[in-house]
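Today's session is about reading a structure prediction critically. Students often jump straight to the picture, but the first step is always the sequence itself: look for stretches that repeat, for charged clusters, for runs of hydrophobic residues. Only then move on to the predicted structure, which in these notes is written as discrete structure tokens rather than atom positions. Here is the chain we will use throughout the hour.
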Amino acid sequence: MALQSKPAASKTTATTKPEAAPVQFIFGKENYRLLIISIAIVALGFFLMAGTTDIYSTTKIVIAPIVVLAGFALGFVAILKKPSAKA
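Below is the predicted structure for this chain, in token form.
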């Protein structure tokens, strides 16, 4: 039983490289800016929560949690905001 080989493909076909499309990022510049601002707001809230030795101060139990939640809400908005389409 003899093995038959397939004929070699001709190498006359030209290989063309497709043009590279510009890289599209998921987030835009404004999204990153809002995300950094939200991280700073959350850090400020935790700093306010650390505060002084007074455990029951209004800053620690009311204002600081509101600031932290506002920072998380801004981070949520920064993630879901569609970047502006500039062509």
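Discussion point for the tutorial: The chain has a mean pLDDT of 84.
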